[in-house]
Amino acid sequence: MFHQETADAEHFEQVIVQAVRQILTRPDQVAFLRWARTRIPEILGLADAHLDSFEIQRLAALLATVIWNATPQPINGFQPIPMETPPPESLCSCGSGLPYSSCCGNVDDMPELSSELIWEVLLDELPERALREALALNAIPGPLLAKIADRWLDEDRPGRVVTLLEPLFAGSLDELDARYEPALDILCDAYDRLDHWRKKLVFLDRVCNEGGRAMQAAAWQRRSTIHIDEGDYARAETAFTAALRSNPDNPSTALLEITLLAAQHKDWLARERARFWLHKLRRLGYGDEGFMDFLERAVTDPQEAMVSSHADALDPVLVDLNDWMSVIAARPLPSYALAVVKPPRAAPRRADQLDLFDTADDLPRRRSGFGARVDPVDAPSMGAAVARGLPVELRAPARVRQLESFWRALYPSDKPVSTHLTLLDGADVWADTAWVDYLLGHPEAADSLEVLDDLATALYEHPESALPWISHALLRPLLDRAWSVMDALLPLGDPRYIPWSVKGNRSALRLLFRRYLCQVQEGQPGGAIETLETLLRLNPQDNHGARAELMNHYLRDGEDERALALAQRFPEDLLADLAYGEVLALYRLGRQERARSVLKTAIRRLPRIPHYLTRKRIKQPRLSPLGITPGGDDQAWLYREAMLDVWAAEPGILAWLKRCAI
Predict the structure, then answer these.
(1) 3-state DSSP of 30-49
(2) I want to staple 560 with a disulfide (CB 3.0 to 4.6 A). Which of 162, 546, 585, 592 is the partner?
(3) CA distance 228 to 537
(4) Are 507 and 451 in contact (CB under 8 A)?
């Protein structure tokens, strides 16, 4: 039944389209009726409808009359030219041979067709010159101006879009109903293209304050989306709540809520809300609409639903890579070998050599999202852990090494500098995507940690990388594959490790650190701790500064004994997280004398931390993009930002810290 109704609707739409074309080509009433008696039955397939020829002709003539009467005609200033009612005794125009009064004139309640519906067809059929004439005459219904504006935006003419749509919103906004929502969205898109962000915000504020409920909901939805893109989920939640209050039954609000939850990786809640919205919208009469399919997908996997729903708007290359991910997921893990190497020489830099270098202290500041630029430690700091065990180098299988040789010649960039996660400014691996074409044809490339590392770097650099579902769908599978390779090769308890100083180990270690960042972003602290612990086990010199992050995780979880053990692995460390984390752990364990002794050492090396922790309010110092200064105000500020809430939660410790620091 559903398929039949859909087919009937499609056939009727074709009747309107072809009828409008016929009217535009030859605006003659008699000729049009003659055309209709032949073509309309063919389009509708009425020969199979169990109707006699008289009924078929009559139906075709009635439909033709309805369409003609609703069609705005260029020759009449884009106004319809209704057919005159024939005299009662004249022959009916349907061709039945009967008088009009005994035939079509005997039909009660002649159906009417909206001219706005015809205009939707006309806008696709009118040549540019006729379209300009219609606009000059203000003949086009206001809500349909969005269709023209959308076309112009596709042609990269945002200035014309603004000129066209701004007058729609110049008058009283409470008169605009839900039909004007597309115009609001396209006008905002045009403002974005023109970088008129301030004008856009003023416009949205006005609609939120003065518009009708439907338009208010649309404006609040837009504002929520803006905050999601900024990563400001608190304000996004506030705007979403306002949109829901303005129009609680709007399907767009349902999609927004799933988007907001998925962006925060609250997948379990997104699934529950998708079930709620499906039930509610079905009761409201929705069934086969596209958003219902999205909600059904979200019940199973909100992240995959987001990728699928954005496929049309995403870079096609990312969509292709998403398909590639499903192919490589079925591949067995490659069998890497381990070759013994000479132990790395521990040559930590002196304190006077540590002015302005990146440390794990400023990871929280710069780890703001999937595409954040995180530049951890390049060399082990003063007091680095002593590496125990057997150092080894990863060796890919012969077939993988051969593939890597071809890949290095094809891929348009070197590795990131040192432990950085992003490329040097100016590098653009997406300008020529021949390497993507190679990947799509060679799923075996996923057996190479070198290739996985390059692909992860490329995804960090992509303009759409900030979308959280892109990270989930594309980056995370690569990182989990690398994790599985390393877990099988060097499981817990294996005495071997892979030092960063050996170049062949760097891709694997960088992939593991990226995995940690993804897990934190996706709200998986347990998995994040496991990844950090593994990273420290595999690279005890800790070039990535994993120890600082791990220390803070331990302290947040109340794992004070583990925090102490970690601090003792890195004595005299210049990272605030280690030095002051040990103090906090000792205090919470009731070992205050030992805590006081450790604090004195910490203050001697990093004296500004207590001042920044114990002040209720303190001005942010100037932060350098080059990194932080150990012992400086910038380091103290960043530690306060990262861990003040944990310190403040321990009764009495801040007062104790202030007394001891005097």
Answers:
(1) HHHHHHHHHHHHHHHCHHHC
(2) 585
(3) 37
(4) no
**Same-domain status, 477 and 400:** yes
- Residues 21, 25, 31, 35: what is their CA dihedral angle, to the nearest 10 degrees? -30
CA separation, residue 598 to residues 217, 337, 380, 587 (Å): 56, 43, 22, 10
Residue 522: what are its φ and ψ, rounded to 5°?
-90, 10
pTM: 0.73
| Alpha carbon 78 to chain centroid, angstroms | 43
Judge whether 154 lies within some domain. Answer: no
Domain shared by 388 and 489, yes or no: yes
Chain centroid to Cα 487, Å, comes to 30
Residue 76: domain span: 2-117
Same domain for 552 and 598, yes or no, is: yes
| Residue-by-residue DSSP string for 420-447 | -SSPPTT--TTS--HHHHHHHH-GGGGG
Q: If you ran DSSP here, which 8-state letter would residue 474 be given? A: I
Q: Of 74, 92, 117, which residue sits at a domain end? A: 117
Of 140, 164, 142, nearest to 151 by C-alpha is 164
Q: Quick count: other Cβ atoms within 10 Å of Cβ 7?
A: 11
Query: Would the pLDDT of 314 be above 50?
Result: yes
Q: Which residue has the tokens 């055309």?
A: 35
Please tell me which residue, 8 or 629, carries the higher pLDDT value: 629
Mean pLDDT is highest, among 91-105, 117-131, 244-258, for: 244-258
Residue 128 lies in a domain: no
Q: Comparing 251-265, 316-330, 368-382, 521-535, which segment has the lowest mean pLDDT? A: 368-382
Radius of gyration over every alpha carbon of the chain, rounded to an integer in angstroms: 34
Cβ within 8 Å of residue 306, ≥6 positions away: 258, 259, 262, 298, 467, 469
Residues 368 and 388 in one domain: no
Look at residue 73 and tell me if it is in a domain.
yes
Based on the fold, state whether residues 322 and 454 are members of the same structural domain: yes
DSSP 244-293: HHH-TT-HHHHHHHHHHHHHTT-HHHHHHHHHHHHHHHHHTT--S-HHHH
CATH number at residue 589: 1.25.40
Q: How confident is the model at residue 47 (pLDDT cuts 50, 70, 90)?
A: low
Cα(572)–Cα(368) distance, rounded to whole angstroms? 29
pLDDT at 385: 60
Residue 354 pLDDT = 35
Contact of 560 with 554, CB cutoff 8 Å: yes
Residue ranges with strand state E in 433-583: 496-497
Closest CA to 41 of 25, 58, 28: 58
